[in-house]
Design a protein that fits this description.
single chain, 192 residues, alpha/beta, Rossmann fold, six-stranded parallel beta sheet, 38% helix, 22% strand, globular, disordered N terminus, P-loop_NTPase, ATP-binding protein
């Protein structure tokens, strides 16, 4: 598994189906795929479709950072938690163990676990950092125009997300400035 960033920085304009076909040709059992991008870029949709079409007896475990962020100010903390509790144990083949964030009670809730050799799709804003990239075979940065992203996100989450849009966008911008996920990606894609 190579953690070297892609040499090409060209933005590919692909359909979700074409990107899924490309990624499926690059993965093997036990691999990790990371999908990052700003809110509304299409990360969750792509992750679900990739999981659905994954070959093999056992599809990969889909872990959304939405389950790990400790609240509306937790983008960076959720990404660090994913590396420490989900990805790092894989170095020794140990099982990953983490708690899922309960947005309703504003605290960590149920425990989750998965075997150390299972394939994983980790998706969410902030997921692609240098620490996380070291564990992933495929690293995707998704992009879309800001007006499209905002419309998608607010259509999806409506009034729950609306008051937090700017605050979350500022954390995404900080992540981009600190981690340069686009540079770490093996695929930089604007979905059409």
């Amino acid at each position: 598994m190579s953690s070297a960033p892609s040499r090409s920085r060209a933005v590919a304009r692909l359909t979700s189906a074409a990107l899924v076909r490309t990624v499926l040709g690059e993965v093997s059992p036990g691999d990790v795929v990371i999908i990052d991008g700003r809110s509304g870029a299409g990360k969750s949709t792509l992750a679900r479709e990739l999981q659905r079409q994954w070959d093999g007896a056992q599809p990969p475990q889909l872990i959304a950072l939405d389950e790990l962020y400790p609240g509306w100010d937790g983008l960076a903390a959720g990404a660090e938690y994913a590396v420490a509790r989900v990805l790092a144990p894989r170095r020794t083949g140990a099982p990953a163990r983490w708690q899922q964030w309960d947005w309703g009670t504003d605290r960590y809730g149920p425990d989750r676990a998965l075997k150390g050799d299972e394939s994983i799709i980790l998706e969410g804003s902030g997921a692609l950092t240098a620490a996380a990239a070291a564990f992933a075979t495929v690293r995707i940065w998704l992009d879309a125009p800001s007006d499209v992203r905002k419309r998608r996100a607010l259509d999806r989450d409506g009034d729950t997300y609306r008051p937090h849009w700017e605050r979350w966008a500022a954390q995404e911008q900080d992540h981009i400035a600190r981690n340069d996920p686009r540079r770490l990606a093996t695929h930089v894609v604007e979905l059409v």
